[in-house]
Amino acid sequence: MQLGSHFGASPCQSKVEPRSVNTARRRLAGRTTNIYFDGLSHFRHILYMEDDVIIEADGMEEPPRSEEELEATESRVENRVAKAKNELEQVKRERQEYLDGWQRAKADYVNALKRAESEKDAAKTNGVAKASQAFIGVLDTLERAEAAGEVPEAFTSVAKQLHAAATSLGLTKFGEVGEVFDPLHHEALGQDVVDTLELDETVTAVLEPGWKAGEEVIRPARVRVGNFEVST
Description:
alpha+beta, three-stranded antiparallel sheet
C-alpha cells in the first residue's frame, strides 16, 4: 500500500537504504518524497529530484588531496621522524654517559677498597715492626742463654711466654750458613776466603740472626760472606 502524494514526477529516481551502518548527510535540491511500506516492513524513501544528490557518510574514503596537501603532509611526517631520531640519539648519548659514569665510580670504589686494605696491612706491619724492634733484643739474649744452658728453672715459664709473644706478632728468625748473600736480608760484616766457586757470595758465619714480620724485614741478619779468589 502506498501512502503520500506525488508533487511531480522525475525521470531520475534514487533510493537510500535506512539500514546503512554509516550516518549519511544528504544535501538535496528540488526533490519530492514518497513514503511507503513494503511486505518486509522496511521503511524506505523514494526521492525524486531534479538536481544531483550528494551523500557524505562516516567511514567512507576521503576525497583525493591536492599535490600541495600531500607534500605538506609528507613534510610534517618527515619532521616528526627526524625529531624522534634526534630524541633517540640524545637518549642513547645520555645512557652511555650514565654507563660510563657508573663504571668509573665502580672502578674508583674498587680501587679505594684495595687501597684501604693495603694501607691497613701496611699500618699493621709498621706497628708490628715498631713493637718488635725493642723486643727482638730480648729474644736474642734469651736464645743465647738457652743455647748455653744458662736459663734458670724459675725463668722457664717466662721464656715460654716470650716465645709465644714473638709467635703472636708473626716474628720469624732467618739467617743460616750456606745461604746466598742477599743485601736485602743480610748485612755483611766481613769476608772469609773459600776454596770453591760454589761457596762464593754465600754466608759463611751468622753473627746475629735476622728477624722479619711477614715479608717485612725488621732487622737484617749480620753475617760474614765467602769470597773465592782465583789463584794465578
